[in-house]
Amino acid sequence: MGFGRPLLEINALHTAFRMQDHYHDAVDDVSFSLEKNEILAIVGESGCGKSTLATTIVGLHNKANTRISGEIIYQNLNLIDLNETLYNRIRGNDIGMVFQNPLAALNPMMTVSEQIEEVLVYHSRLTKEERALRVRELLVQVKVEDPEGTAIRYPHELSGEARQRIGIAIAIACEPPIIIADEPTTALDVTVQAQILDLLSEVRDDTGAGIILITHDLGVVAEIADRVAVMYAGQIVETAGVVDLFTDPKHPYTRSLLRSMPQANGVPGSDSGEFYVINGDVPSLQQLPKQGCRFAGRIPWIPFSAHEQSPKMHEVSKGHLVRCTCHESFHFEGESE
Amino acid sequence: MGLLEIKDLKVRYPVKSGFLSDKKSLAAVDGISLSLEEGKNYGLVGESGSGKSTVGRAIVGLERITAGQIIYEGSDITAALGKRKSVHKRNVQMIFQDSNASLNPKKQIAQIISEPLHNFEKLSQQEEKKRVSELLEMVGLPQDALQKYPHEFTGGQRQRIALARAVALRPKFVIADEPVSVLDLSVQAQVLNYMRRIQEEYNLSYLFISHDLGVVKQMCNELAIMYRGRFVEYGDRQDIYLNPQHIYTKRLLSAIPNLDPVNRELHKRLRRETEAAYKQSMESYLAKDGRVGDLLPLSETHRVAGKPSKGVV
User: Fold this and answer.
1) A248 close to B (CB below 8 A)
2) Domains in chain B, start-ordered, CATH in brackets?
3) ipTM of predicted complex
4) What is the pTM (predicted TM-score) of this model?
5) Inter-chain residue contact B217 with A264, CB threshold 8 Å
């Protein structure tokens, strides 16, 4: 933790999409900060707004049908006020992004070295020779097998693992202080996933970058994150240090999610007994309750009075925040408090 | 003797390697044997490209079998796999990973679920209707779903529709190829619960094909670990999870993320040690041509691919 302001500070961020002449908040009142040298995981299920949050931070939304308000403060600038030209200077240079599907994120018509070099052409004043040197250095840094051979290949000639390593090389080419990784390992085998996660932590250790890791996988969170923000239906419902989140989860959603995980570690479970299922479905964007706790409908056995009218984040211990008061009286259905 | 026996199954794909060159082929499945008994669940686990899906597809006749036999209730049905209607087809059904691709987007749910009934059973319209709504109820979907189309459902609901179709004929076996891997955690649990309930009601067996050792652990009695089209290890849950013998199995297990952030440095160290051991010794587990050795018995339930040099590991 440094002095003064954090690396990135997000305050009351809203991202609303226009659907049939109405705007719906996909990201609703999200606030958090990212420090240098920190891996912050944003975890949630599909449709919770985690990817929208990522694309909002890097300014990838079409302004014509998206309404964004709030603050994304980076170096005393509010990024949402920037025009495209200024944003282009930040993207790639100050914020690197790693995408879920590297085959879609990489240009199929460009060789590996060309696309890594492209970022340097935009953002650096390196000469052609210096750029070639840097590309080679990056390929070694992300531990691609056979860096020379890979450099002249096209994305379709590479394995999924190598492609994601290239994706990371592009993201870190300009040594950005912030890296956003959106489900970087979801499409990969577990053994490869472990190695890509190792690489991300090494990048953090080497460059001191702050990394926002967007994921649906609590296992990944437990392996690599320092801090966690859990999102549900567009809102952050809980933020905590990673140990606190797993040993002392508070919000009913976090607790339910942890309970529904099929466990692969430890002693094999018994055959009987069903997997824990969260009651009901995630509300769609158009059906979000306008008021009250958004998780209330999925824990109907908890009395309505346990929820706040307009749920706020409450600090339960240092650095551990929970939305709504319902966690105080929450218990699983059929169990006592 | 199992109800469904797979003997030395081989599936090879032709590989074109250039003009006038020899016809080459690639072994996706290179000699595996499995004996599946009634009422038990089996897991087939491996990384992408290991050939696990090809095994499932070959059993239901979606892949041309190069060599080997598939024996159902004692009779060899390998040759009959290409036919549209056979007893085996009726009793062995499949659920696919991507319900977007496996459900016909132009058909209503009623048509989708009744298709196997049309093919195999002579039911009156009324009987068919009754059966279809029974099936729908069994997977927890409302009756008004019948007139809807696949795109009107969520991924989890679509997978339940696929499940209803797969069990429409009361099959003995359902091959489930990564049935929940694209679903969210809370939805995964729901689909797996339906699969369990249906199993209890119909007394059927599942063959789970998965890369996720978590799901398989909770659902399967016996597991096969696959690598390059061959089995490297076979055993019950205790054998595989608590007493893995093959370095490939150990590596696969060590790579599973641990939900215990307090001990993650320890976990990471163990994983790296296993990875290093794998890199160092995997070759010694393989024959010169890179082929995995034959399975050799360790105990009554547990079999491990032998090291070509030393026999059993």
Assistant:
1) no
2) 4-220 (3.40.50.300), 242-313 (no CATH)
3) 0.86
4) 0.91
5) yes
